[in-house]
Amino acid sequence: MANSSVVASSLLAFVSSLVLLLHVASANDVASTICPKTKNPGFCTTELKTAGSADLKALATHTLNLARKKAGESVALANDLAAKATDPQLKERYTSCSKNFDEAIGNIETAEKHLASGDYNGVNLAGSAVMSTVDDCRANFETGPADTSSLSTNGKTLDDISSIILVISNLLLQPA
């Protein structure tokens, strides 16, 4: 009787390990399909590994959550920079970026609604709109005075996340 429980326990451990390996393999397969098509494949691979899923809808949800968090951080940073800026031109630019990132949050919310309803083209369009708002903020700083804060880095990260959203939404649009 004791031997059968040892065997059962060993079998359970083996099956659990096998399931974990298959999950990791399928997550890597999905990342290897998605990430080369994004703006920043290395960033994509890192972020998708944290998702804990190989399901495209779950990855889209995870990525939209990342986008919402980064856009929220960017709004807060832009507001803080605008409040502290002594240069009126920088103050205006940071205020404009705050509005851009706030608009990005609205686009992310729209993408989430489209994802929930199965409208993957809508997810794609909303993801593109997020990228446009990031570009609008970036355009504020094409001429001096320069932005020396981490706002441009936040914008690039949000752009990279949005790129992942676009690829996932395109894959979701493909027939199974």
Folded structure, characterized:
This protein is an all-alpha fold. It has a single domain, classed as Butyryl-CoA Dehydrogenase, subunit A, domain 3 (Up-down Bundle), CATH 1.20.140.40. 82% of the residues lie in helices and 0% in strands. The protein has 6 helices and no strands. α1 runs antiparallel to α2, α3 packs antiparallel against α4 and α4 packs antiparallel against α5. 33% of the residues are buried. This is Pectinesterase inhibitor-like.
CA radius of gyration: 21 Å
Look at the structure and give the mean pLDDT.
86
Total beta-strand segments: 0
User: Main sheet?
Assistant: none
Helix content: over 70%
CATH topology: Butyryl-CoA Dehydrogenase, subunit A, domain 3
Number of domains: 1
**CATH superfamily (homologous) name:** Invertase/pectin methylesterase inhibitor family protein
Give the gist of this structure.
The chain has 176 residues and is mainly α. Helices cover 82% and strands 0% of the residues.
Give the topology, please.
Elements: H1 2-34, H2 41-49, H3 56-84, H4 88-117, H5 120-139, H6 151-173
Helix pairs in contact: 1-2, 3-4, 3-6, 4-5, 5-6
Features:
single chain; 176 residues; elongated; 82% helix
